Amino acid sequence: MPAIDLARLKKQTAYLADLFDQPTDFLREHREILDYYVNRTLRSQGVAPSSVLPTYRTPPVVLRQIETELGPVAEKRPIQALTLADALWDEGWLETRLLAAFLLGRIPPQEERLLARLTAWTQAVRDPSVRAALLTTSLTRLRNETPDLFLILVKEWMHPARQRMWSNGIQALVPLINTPDFDNLPPIFDIVEPIIKASPAALQFDLRELITALYKASPDETIFFLGQIVKETKSPLPAVSLRRMSPELPQELQTSLREILRSRKKQERREP
Prior knowledge:
It is a single chain. By secondary structure, the protein is mainly α. Helix 4 (60-76) runs parallel beside helix 6, helix 10 packs antiparallel against helix 11 and helix 13 (204-217) packs across helix 14. Residues 43-47 have low confidence and may be disordered. It has helices spanning 6-18, 23-36, 40-43, 60-76, 78-91, 94-104, 114-124, 128-135, 140-145, 147-157, 166-177, 186-198, 204-217, 219-232, 237-245, 251-270. The protein has 16 helices and no strands.
């Protein structure tokens, strides 16, 4: 891999931006840039650690410069951005799919094909880095500019019949909950209530992250919400799940959960 000359890199990425509406030529030039900066000492390993996709092992500074150059173009030309994102996704490399996910996040939420693309790609993705990008970066404008539409999409992902999408739905919600000025938690409680009541073992990590985010956003609302679920749900699964994850939750929440679970036990003893 040659030393990175930032002036040269900027010229390369500027030319790449000029090819934005020519997917075939763009892909060819993009490959040349990735290959030029490839870390050949690592390339022989084929895929990145924890990745299932082939990779060029491109230095992050190169990927960031490509995104910096293409971001404003994608915002001005959303139709071409979606076409290019499709072509990049089909290339099937880690770097091309990460760039495709980035471009989706720059497309206006009003683009009618955006939601379908997000759903299709999140259903098919297997690589953890690409999945994380789709559930954060790709949803940036949808989450920030049209939160109501964003919640409609997540609610579809978390439908009882789509259990394979539940983890994606939870991971998509967490950045919204963590937004400092976001305080509209009731719709989120409504969406996640059936999932917490079901408490699948495979979603323990996701649920712990979700509950932690909810508690940090609004401690009182979250404690009341969890208390109602434990009290009203006949199945022992929510109580068992909360007990298991409790040691990994914030200390103050652990204290409140112990009281909630203690009340549940007393209730069970009173019932015939």
